[in-house]
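Write out this protein's structure.
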Amino acid sequence: MNSAPSIGGFAVLKNRDFSLYLASRFFGSIATQMIIMAVGWQVYRITGRVLDLGLIGLSQFLPFLCLVLFSGHVADQFDRRIIILVCLCAYGICALTLFVFALAKLTTTLPIFSVLAIFGITRAFQVPASQSFVPTIVPIDTLRNALAINSSANQVAAIAGPSLGGVIYALAEVDLGHNSGAGVVYGAAAILLLAAVSMIALVRKRRLPSARSTLSLSTLLEGVRFVWHRKTVLGAISLDLFAVLFGGATALLPAYTHDVLHAGPEVFGALRAAPGVGAGLTAVFLAYRPVTHQVGKVMFFGVGAFGAATVVLGLSHWFWVAMTSLVILGVGDMISVFVRSLLVQLETPDTIRGRVSAVNSVFIGASNELGEFESGTTAAWWGLVPAIVVGGVATLVISALWARIFFPRLWQLHSFEQLKDLKSNGT
């Protein structure tokens, strides 16, 4: 694939269809962030068990894992815009269902976890279609900036979603009474998802998938084979898997807020948004100044910053130290995400982009949702603070092993253009 220098800044926003897609993704991301924030606080209020915070991630990840290879094949065979549209509608139905459950003032979490499983099924189809959609609506010379701006919008949503959800939750509890906050958040999320559906429905121009191939085990595994034979891609996405798997401290923030900081949902919303602040500012910077040199070392630096910030968070009992740590965590995560996303997109042919994105999303989903389960489980075993600290240390160890022992060529990767030489050598 041609990797010519990209056009700088925000010129890509003049592309009507990219702007519509970006707006849809932004509203949809805010809505889903609000939902997960409210679910976390609601579940912990009902049960008071940190293990249940881990089950929130597991209930989404298991159905996602079962379906994601098939959904990647679907993304390569059908109109990705229609897939995204249907998935946003499904998210809206989930939000409305949770709204009804909140009105019923449930005292059990099983129905909530059932909806989260549907959430996971929906995400299995939405993520590969979304990750592979941007290259079909923007020219190749604007792809780097489009991906940076897309990541920036997602991180702004990661800031606005939990913050907005936390404020709405807290105000509703004051104005409408105890246990009313979750329902108001779910209702607001449903409205935002309706806006997201409207935006993606207006997208017109895009490259449709090529001729359809027969569904078989071989076609389903095409993305897996591609990733396995591209060792730089395998190293980048597996680094994210294991680093974030052990460093998933954000899943424990409801318990951290309640038990360590002794605060309420508005503080939880601020803490939950803090990684998005760091990531969002970093993404805006990267839109103007993309990483072009020493890309391997820059990615490992980002993962190292993520791990170190997690350790500081676990050792802190002060709000502002926790906020600063989470902002730095977001900066490191965004640097790593930017390099990994470009590396995967620039290496992948469009004919299998959905299937490769599906494999990538398995790694990301495992690191996020399965990481939430791991964090909840270790917190139940060892205690909240030790689980966070040990997770951060494990992330630092993983980063060192990947850089020096398992994937040294990824550490030595100087530029994205160097990928051509590695590809010709079969690495």
